[in-house]
Amino acid sequence: MSKLPVMEIFGPTIQGEGMVIGQKTMFVRTAGCDYSCSWCDSSFTWDGSGKDLIKQMEADEIWTELKALGGNGFSFVTISGGNPALLKNLDELIHILQENDIKVGLETQGSKWQDWFYDIDELTISPKPPSSGMITNFEKLDEIIKNLSGRSISLKVVIFDDQDYEYAKQIHQRYPHVPFFCQVGNDDITTTDDRDLVKRLLEKYTWLIDKVMADDELKNVKVLPQLHTYIWGNKRGV
Ligand SMILES: C[S@@+](CC[C@H](N)C(=O)[O-])C[C@H]1O[C@@H](n2cnc3c(N)ncnc32)[C@H](O)[C@@H]1O
Ligand SMILES: Nc1nc2[nH]cc(C(=O)O)c2c(=O)[nH]1
Ligand code: SF4
Ligand SMILES: [Mg+2]
What pLDDT, on a 0 to 100 scale, did the predictor assign at position 201? Predict the structure, then answer.
């Protein structure tokens, strides 16, 4: 079996974002990303600051660790990163999970394709708006969305400002048949003052809801908070 660069394994917790928000789940976070979003809340996976935490693990070792942490109390595993779509050999882990009746969710930004995307039960694609500093490769994104037509996927755009909002709309209009989520951006990813953070995140959530409600062009959309930050703030591993 080949090795995977694992940054952290944690849970059980709830999925705080997107199409299966609230789902009880374990998390596997892989190291490495082809992007470097200005506001990335998981930059330790790619900026070198977490390099001592990276463990090269075989898929069956990851499964053993998941069971050690979660016991018999889980039926869902979410794979995130970094960008897990950089890892060609992630199929080994996905297959072990499925052999054990575990549903698999995965978070990626839509910059890379892998054939194992077909095996993911809930795939979240999260293209990055202008505030991230990243440029979307629409040729690649078109290909990914086309390949996955008819499968359980969603698009989730994080929104920080008006320009991001316009970008989100552009994404929804380009792929109108893909379930579409807008998510509040967290612009203070280092504070430990949870009360102040939650207060400001709620204000931003209100701002986003008000904008969508007043917008006749955005109809079939779900507006969500990044739920885990309202509960645990910027804490890692939850
Ligand atoms: C850390 S990323 C890892 C997966 C993949 N690289 C991606 O971006 O989709 C997981 C999710 O967190 C979101 N995210 C990252 N930083 C955020 C922030 N400061 N506020 C809100 N969401 C954030 C990303 O947009 C993505 O949807
Ligand atoms: N609870 C919880 N939900 C999440 N949804 C997406 C996450 C991520 O970092 O990819 C995440 C995370 O780190 N924690
Ligand atoms: S694509 Fe995801 S992991 Fe990579 S920098 Fe952006 S938010 Fe962070
Ligand atoms: Mg996160």
Answer: 98
| pLDDT digit string, tens, across residues 143-162 | 999 999 999 999 999 999 99
Strand ranges (DSSP E) for 15-135? 24-30, 55-58, 76-80, 103-108, 122-125
Looking at every residue in the chain, the average pLDDT score rounds to 98
Q: Residue 151: its pLDDT value, please?
A: 97
How does residue 1 score in pLDDT terms, banded at 50, 70 and 90? confident
Closest CA to 182 of 158, 160, 166: 158
Dist CA 130 CA 72 (whole Å): 42
- In this structure, what token pair is assigned to residue 230? 């309202």
CA 62 to ligand 1 center in whole angstroms: 22
Q: Is the CB of 156 under 6 A from ligand 1?
A: yes
Helix (H) or strand (E) holding 212: helix 194-213
pTM for this structure? Answer: 0.98
Known binder of ligand: residue 56? Answer: no
Structure tokens at 92: 């080994």
- Ligand 1 atom at minimum distance from 40 CA: 16
Task: Give the closest residue to 139 by CA, choosing from 169, 166, 174.
Answer: 174
Residues 6+ apart with CB under 8 A from 22: 14, 15, 227
Closest ligand (CA of 10): 2
pLDDT digits (tens, 9 = 90+) for 121-136: 999 999 999 999 999 9
Q: What residue's CA is closest to ligand 2, atom 6?
A: 17
- 33 Cα to the center of ligand 3, angstroms: 6
